[in-house]
Design goal:
Layout: H1 11-18, H2 23-30, H3 33-38, H4 42-50, H5 56-69, H6 74-85, H7 89-100, H8 102-110, H9 115-119, H10 129-139, H11 155-179, H12 183-211, E1 220-226, H13 228-231, E2 241-249, H14 257-276, E3 287-288, E4 301-302, H15 304-313, H16 317-323, E5 327-331, H17 333-349, H18 356-369, H19 387-401, H20 413-422, H21 428-452, H22 463-472, H23 479-502, H24 506-511, H25 515-519, H26 522-531, H27 537-548, H28 553-570, H29 575-589, H30 595-601, H31 605-615, H32 617-625, H33 644-657, H34 661-684, H35 690-720, E6 727-733, H36 735-738, E7 748-756, H37 762-781, E8 791-792, E9 805-807, H38 808-817, H39 821-827, E10 831-835, H40 837-851, H41 859-875, H42 894-908, H43 920-929, H44 935-959, H45 974-983, H46 991-1012
Parallel strand pairs: 2-3, 2-4, 7-8, 7-9
Antiparallel strand pairs: 1-2, 1-5, 6-7, 6-10
Amino acid sequence: MSERPERGASLAARLTRAGVDDVPRAERLLADAALLEVLPDAAEVLVGPLADVADPDAALLALAKLAGAVRDDAGLSALLTQTLTHDDEPRHRLLAVLGASVALGDTLGAHPANLRLVADPTPGTGVPAAEVRAELLRAVGADPTHDVPVATVVGTDGIDAMRRAYRSRLLRITATDLTVPDPLNRMPGVAAALADLAAAALESALALARADLPDHGAGVRLAVIGMGKAGGRELNYVSDVDVIYVCEPAEGSGLSEADALAAGTRLASGLARACSTPAGEPALWPVDAALRPEGKDGPLVRTLASHRAYYERWAKTWEFQALLKARPLAGDVALGRAYVEMTQPFVWSAVQREHFVEDSQAMRRRVEGNIPAAEADRQLKLGVGGLRDVEFTVQLLQLVHGRSDEAIRSGSTLTALAALAADGYVGRDHAARLAVCYRFLRLLEHRIQLHRLQRTHLLPTGEADLRRLARSVGMRAEGAEGLLERWRQVRRDVRHLHEELFYRPLLPATARLSDEEASLAPEAARARLAAIGYRDPAGAARHIAALTEGVSRRASIQRQLLPVMLGWFAEGPDPDGGLLAFRRLSEQLGTTHWYLKLLRDSGTAAQRLAHAVSTSRYVADALTRSPESVTWLAGDDELEPRGRERLAAEVDAALTRAHEPVPAVTFLRGLRRRELARTAVADVLGVVTGARAAQSVTAAADVVLAGALRVAEAETRQARGLDRNPTRMLVVAMGRLGGREMGYASDADVLFVHDPEPGADSRAAQEFAVAVATALRQLLGALGPEPALAVDADLRPEGRNGPLARSFDAYAEYYERWSSPWESQALLRARPVAGDAELGEGFVALVDPLRYPEGGLDASTLREVRRIKARVEAERLPRGQDPARHLKLGRGGIADVEWTAQLLQLQHAHEVAGLRTTSTLDALAAACGAGLLEADDLTALVQAWELASRLRDANVLWTGRAEGAHADALPHDHHALGGLARVIGYPSGSGGELEQTYLRTARRARAVVERVFYG
């Protein structure tokens, strides 16, 4: 809205406030005689409205010229006076055009009669294309209703008439464009109107070219096919108009094909000259036929059959991408339609060409790499985050998915983007943001080109130019700096979305599918499922039908995902199980806003999910149990172990708020389940394996034991009416828990220790400690909604015959008087894990002399240790079990390696500090470092222990069963061996190789054990 003149303000001040740069010149122009003739109070009337235009200086100068141009025409003078006097739409349109386009201001000055068009409020957009075509044909004296219009105004006069008519219509479009309240929303309509105007100009130019031929081209049919933005009805104000010419002899003309092509070439050349060569009126734009077969090296016109032959044999990938926008613009409509119909099968099957997606991606990178360095940060079209990022993204998605979905086959970028979003190929939020960014970039491009009607895609650098551009797009308040900041943000958003969508791993995978594979047609799907390894193709087909039937957005996205994911499932050892798990997950999560979006848009999630659930039943069950865990698959960060400190803080926060023991422990058990699932997923995906996975599992058990002790103490105090504990409690980790080497099926081996508070009754303290230990085991081990953690205290003094908990003094007395060598060996893993820290330090000090005996082992104790080990081998191995295949107790298995490490600790830890560790691998490394173990022996033992440990975990991950003795044995079954091999990262079909690797590794380790342990 224009400003009211300020009372008392000087003219110079008002001009400055309106945004005028050259105030003295503006004052002179307002006093111009010609302007005062049409508007005596020009200074009072015009200064306020000038504040609303892009360039007030340019508008005022053009207005003065226009006033001079109408001096001799009373009607136009009166119209100009009327237009400028009234604060309504005609004045807004005129000043907007003059302020935004110096070139169109010159056009008005040269042809002032066009003032009537600018003042006319009839919209310049949304006009039927046929009406615009007729307007430009009539300008050259051609009959719009004739099948082959021929100009009667010919030569330079005809060219100038066509160009004047073009710019008259362009003025209407521009006036509408510059005065709409929301130019972003109107931009597609403006681009379509410009494309229709270009098509009409081509038709008029073709009529001029026909007039130059003796027979007016009656014997030849010529179709002008629009490509690029002209074909997509999304043209700029000034752009090359990309075309392809198709030519055929007219039926019954008697012309040979060669004569028809010669005539067609003359018509095409004449058409191009009419649009772009110098004449009395300025040229329109170049007509560019470089997208034709063979480019500039090929003939200008070809027959339909010649085009087909080229596309069948020689066309490159980019040519099919270009053909996506092909549309008849001028000439023989039927021939144009026949050309487009002929090319469509090539366009929508191009995706099956080898490396199609990769070639398209490489082409985008080449375009970007060829931008001159000086222009890189100013390129609206080709640069990073520019228009090409949007267009290439949309076109690639169309070409990959369009072969089976005709709804997304539009030549218009924004229409195609909306269709891609509607059918679920692009997230609605992504599509909306990309569309807004694209409209803004196109609006900038339009306004920059409109200023001088010059073809450019570079953002200006001058302050005045940037300020004019900001005002022209409705950012007067933000100014040049605000415009630049928005431009930078749009570039960032576009590049982010481009990289996320354009480089989706689903795209090349989808492109490699055949039409039958991509379509999910039932018969073809069953045949494919059987061929790629599904054991129950009919059952798999039912899962597919359940996931994809219907017209919902969810079903649409599943139809995109499944053709590729079926192949990814088949790469795992259990594709049927993977598909079933995926269906269960999808049924639980399909209605959420994030699940299918994550799988479609993430660079890794869908493929990782397919690999995980087709490889591990344990993971499949875990993800089904906690479907939200699927979000971990988007990257590695969420799969990394949380660490004990972070988990402990989470437990502390939850228990501080808790008031009831059962919910509190349910939370603890749920936390452990969550961390087991996280570790299992990371393990199967190869992100966290081996020792790191064991440490992650152990950390979860540590914090759960600490939390459960806290709950058990509180419950016991409440049951006994106590305000405080009568004794300090300590939980000592033993076995693999103590060594931080737990697996997915490991129990928690512990000792319970207590130390009565001063003055406390010893019997009451003992009863309290036993009650706490009992409660802890029940809380963690009882049936419930979350998985149990078995807490095993059998390594305590006297085993199951002894009290569940003992006082510190009782432990001291027992170890001093009755301790056996096996107990010293077991204590090598002792690690305080929960309870009183000071008591933990005291317990470590108590047991250190036993596990690290001064002087090492005497001969009798050494014999006893070896005797016990031999007995374990003879008696504890399950009946009928092949010793070579038992991962824990078999020859070269876990026990062999651990007993060897522990013997070295018992013998030498008193003098080798590095051996004073609860970790098997650290102990072996320290022994090697101290010269107690040869490097080759160390390698053999470590490889055997790591492989056996991984295979125990793999048994659980593969079968999904954490209970039972199956985890301790290397299976004979070929399918199971193949599953284990895939779990630990071997390629498909490597079950036999894994079996031989383990047996060989175990034999080498056993040879070391025979020498080092048994001497």
